[in-house]
Amino acid sequence: MHMSIPASTTAEAFEAEGLAPEVAASVRPAAVWQRLVTHRSAVLGLTVLGIYAVAATLGPLLFPFNPGQNQLTTVLFAPGQGGHLLGTDNFGRDELLLLVYGSRYTLSLGLMAVVLGIVVGVPMGAISFPAIVLALALVAGLGVGLRNVVIAVGVSSVPSFVRLVRADALRLRELPFVEAARALGVSPWLILLRHVIPNAIAPVIVQATLQMGFAILLAASLGFFGLGVQPPTPEWGELLGEARNYIFSDPNLATFPGLAIFAAVLAFNLVGDGLRDALDPRLG
Questions:
Q1: In order of start, what are the domains of the chain with their CATH numbers?
Q2: Residues 6 or more apart whose Cβ sits within 8 Å of residue 117
Q3: What is the pLDDT of residues 253-268, one digit of tens each?
Q4: Model confidence pTM above 0.85
């Protein structure tokens, strides 16, 4: 005869019996945030992402600009020439404003793709397929455009979340607090929802942050090859792809979008490393 356990029982209840999961105390938001803001590289990453977020949110409001409007009288201006801080591109468009407007598309594209990867990847079983090959195949089938790039990059990120969650679930189900719940007659679904999934969230959060950098890089790669967001939308990868024709005559056109992509990917990786350290149960 199995004993029942109240629905309100959580990992904290098992803690009193010495059966709490190793991450019980260390994933509390206040503790995580305190460790994160004292992590130097994570603070640097958050600062860079904050600058990007402010630029993407307020830039278009403060500096109205039509990325599709060409200014042929200001073509390929050098940085600082004619009041253009970063110069102009081959269509006479201000390079700084293109990067500001492009941040909205590049960052939102990465975010939507990672959310899609989490939603689809967490419940699924593990599969393995090269992300860039899968993304290229999906774009080839769906066609180019912002929506299709989000789908392609999002689906490409699914396997990493699947493998992560499956491996963590297999580890968690062998821990004492799960075995205790099973011995008390708790249903498998309740164990999964109340104990396994909540304790697997921490690595998913870290993976999502790291995956943002990968998603931006993958989307930029598609844009560079002309398979991503199409002109005149100023997505960073698309800007970099256009600039390759001027790499020797005007290298600034490739330098600034490349640096923007590099800084975004680096920032998300720094934040991901900081979150990993902040969520490490051994630091609690």
A1: 26-63+84-283 (1.10.3720.10)
A2: 154, 155, 156, 157, 158, 160, 161, 211, 215
A3: 999 999 999 999 999 9
A4: no
